[in-house]
Amino acid sequence: MNLNQLIYFASLAQLQHVTRASEKLNIAQPSLSKAIANLEQELGVDLFEKQGRNVVLTRQGKLYLDYVEKALESLEEGRSALQRMQTELDQRIDIGFVSSLQARMMPQLLADYRKTTGSQTRFACYEGTTVTLLEQLEEGTLDLALGSEPQDSVRFGSDPVFRQELVVLTPKTPRWQAVSSLSLEQIAAQPLILHTRNTGMRKIVLDLFDEAGLKPNVAEEATEESMIASLVAMELGVAVVSLSPAVQLPTVHIVKLDHPKNYRYIHLIYLRHHYLSPAVRHFQNYVLKWAKTSSAR
Fold this sequence. Notes:
Helices cover 45% and strands 24% of the residues. The chain has 11 helices and 12 strands.
């Protein structure tokens, strides 16, 4: 039994004439007759009986028609619901980003996109670590993400779009007030507040120490950079973070990281071999162009 057989059955039941039904369905009359015969054989009952040049439903056929009409109606409702859902999805973008973009960069980006393009696309914004954002991309709950470069280039595609300065946070105490910069060697001699394992920044910071042949003295760990800044303010250690409003607390001192690679790139990340709606692709292209402007750097 297949959907076509049910559609053929319902049409023939309505028109009660094989020729007219085959014309409406745009199929050959023998094909219609064979489809009905196969359906009857599968059900083990006669659905129609001849009445002159017409065919009429049998008692069993009338009973079966009630169920077929309900089934076809339900399928049509499902098709309409899918179309409504797809229309909504085509007009909505689910985007995730790391916390350092929350206060300034993301609001500016979305506002500029709306103002420049006149787009009515709705955005659903989610904050998370790079690791959790990649998981959400794979689950299909995000269309795009902004975070550290993914290590898996087979599953994920990415483009560098923003460059963020890396700085050192110290407590705002007399000891640190005259300090304007710190090297990795100096930081390694201090207790370090490090990002947790599910963050892209952890790898960036540890790679800096590893390339310099140094081992940091990790004292505490935290996921959010605002929490890291708070731990620094409590004099539990120093931290290497990306410069953003989240860490610019009045209770911490921000100094320059004395290192050639005192920056990191934020990447626009997407799942390879995954459907992107026209709205998502349009926004993706916009971000790549927007990132080249001086205001986006």
